[in-house]
Amino acid sequence: MALRAHVDEVVITNGKATGVKLKNGNILHAKQAVVSNCDLHNTFKLIPRGINEKFDIERDELSKTKLCQSFMHLHIGFDSEGLPNDIPPQWTVCNDWNKPIDSPGNVIVVSMASLLDPSLAPPNRHVIHAYTAGNEPYDIWEKFKDNRNSIEYEKLKEERVACLWDAIERQIPDIRKRVKVQLVGTPLTHERFNRRYQGSYGPAIAAGSGVSFPGQKTSIPGYLRCGDSTNPGIGVPAVAASGAVAAAALLPIW
Predict the structure, then answer these.
(1) Quick one: which H or E segment has residue 15?
(2) 241 by DSSP, 3-state: which?
(3) Which residue, 88, 101, 87, 110, is CA-closest to 164?
(4) Is residue 173 classed exposed, middle or buried when 0-12, 13-18 and 19+ CB atoms within 10 A define those classes?
């Protein structure tokens, strides 16, 4: 297993995927196949144009697919002394039912996992992860892509994370006084650390739209894909299923 290994491109030999080339120039050879868990944009980016005509056609078609928006994240660790006993381990806030659920800052999910598993936090502490549910636009952040240390970037983070604080305060009104540590993530965080194109949650393919998520097999022999940009879609259960389908595609059929 190679960790912290940035894949630069998929190695193609005689039309088949045979390994990956890392950013440092090293090549890892595949015994059977290369499976990409990247989003669609990066899955296609790993293969140079001109390798496979059908793959290029699919690349051009799927690149037109509308993307879900991104996220704002707030991770906090805080003092749990004197908290009410009826706080739920997770709650969702919809600020305006007359607006679409993907309207910026409208729907917020708050998870307090240490209520279910106390080992996630030190004694007398709790942790919370709050996030906007795939409704944060990327375009307002793009100008800070190469300037994340600026005062303007920090100000925008503070402004855009306010709705998350408000959602937490519905259950814990004095949460800001209790906080010991806090971390804020933006669409640029998603893009940088998760290698997500524009920090996106995934393709915005609606059920019944007539458009389907692409399958695990590609037109390039030995190159498969899984993850939230493939069938059956977005979300942990769907992504896990996509990995199982990709694995099954590698098994011999008796």
Answers:
(1) none
(2) helix
(3) 110
(4) exposed
